[in-house]
Amino acid sequence: MIGINYNFSIITPLIMAGADRNEVELREASLKGILRWWFRFYKGASLKLQELKEKEGEIWGSQELASRIKILIKKEKFAHKNHLAYLCMNDKGGKKINIKRKAFNEGQDFEVNFEILDPSDTNNVAKELRNTLFFLSNFGGLGARWRRGFGSVMVEGFKILGNDLEEIAQNLEQELNNFQDFRNEKNEQSFMNLSNTSIYLVSPKSKLWDTWVKAMDELRDNLYRELKKRLSISAIAIGKPRKVSPLIIQIKKTNGGYYGVILIWKNWNLYEKCVSEVKSLDFKIKEAKS
After folding, report:
1. For residues 149 and 12, is the Cβ–Cβ distance under 8 A?
2. pLDDT digits (tens, 9 = 90+) for 198-229
3. How many helices and strands, by DSSP H and E, does the chain display?
4. What does DSSP assign to residue 25?
5. Closest of 221, 85, 200, 235 to residue 145, by C-alpha
6. How far apart are CA 94 and CA 83, in angstroms?
7. What is the distance between the alpha carbons of residues 288 and 197, in angstroms, rounded to a whole number?
8. DSSP element (H, E) containing 39
9. Residues 114, 71: contact at Cβ < 8 Å?
């Protein structure tokens, strides 16, 4: 077995629980599930569906194959400090004030050990793991409500630096250039992936936010709720019976402060109007291109 350790930093409150939903718990199964999601996000842009399923099974496991990667969260090194998270994007007032759950505090770190079980193709598996962690670290989160800013984590070694949005966007674009081979604009996949998703970076016009609270509050009131009003919809979700959002809002941190990350699925029937409205909002907006 080959062991690789990565340090995860919690940027916004992380809502994750086990059998007891009233208590917080870091769970390997939840981490593995979201890593599969981001693996599909970047890999699915260049592969046909059956090829993607085969590649995913080879790395992360399937009914026929055992996972090549074993995950162990080193919980003994974790402080387990927690508080309440208000699920309406940090809205503590109004009619939905009681929608809240315990969450791990921002500012905490935890270590994850990834063991590559079959050393015959270690370099390839380690590369796929690094690529997946890059996308999770810069665009995603863990646990409940990660599509609405909660559970943001950043993995050591993958942070995009910058003192303002222009510098962050430029540095992110350089990193995304490494994934040119995974982009295929003619890909017909019916799920969010690198080719059919637009990525925007958001900040105040003057400077980056200095706390995650300010970032989430402004993204909630002046982006998410404003978008719903302009699009004349009560919720941004598609599909039945289980609704999936074609819009992801996340918050990331760099040396200059906090900024927002917006992912918009191009297959959404309101995509064009949504993009137009996002660009017209009272924020500084930069598109991340690769």
Report:
1. yes
2. 999 999 999 999 999 999 999 999 999 999 99
3. 7, 10
4. -
5. 85
6. 20
7. 11
8. helix 28-43
9. yes
**Other C-beta atoms within 10 Å of 8: how many?**
23
- β-strand 197-203 against 153-155: which pairing, if any? unpaired
Across all residues in the chain, what is the average pLDDT?
91
Q: And the tokens for 128?
A: 């796929």
Domains in the chain, start-ordered, CATH in brackets?
2-287 (3.30.70.1900)
Q: Which residues contact 15 (CB under 8 A, 6 or more apart)?
A: 24, 85, 87, 101, 102, 103, 104, 143, 144, 145, 150, 151
157, 163 Cβ separation under 8 angstroms: no
Q: Which residues pair with 247 in a beta bridge?
A: 264
Pairing of strands 197-203, 284-287: antiparallel
Can you tell me which residue has the tokens 């927002």?
260
Quick one: 217 exposed, middle or buried, by C-beta within 10 A (0-12, 13-18, 19+)? middle
**E-assigned strands of 96-243?**
100-104, 109-116, 153-155, 197-203
pLDDT tens for each residue of 34-43? 999 999 999 9
Q: Please state, in angstroms and rounded to a whole number, the distance separating the CA atoms of residues 245 and 270.
A: 12
Query: Sign of the C-alpha dihedral, residues 32, 160, 156, 216?
Result: negative
Surface-to-core class of residue 63, CB atoms within 10 Å of its CB (0-12 exposed, 13-18 middle, 19+ buried): exposed
3-class secondary structure, 13: coil
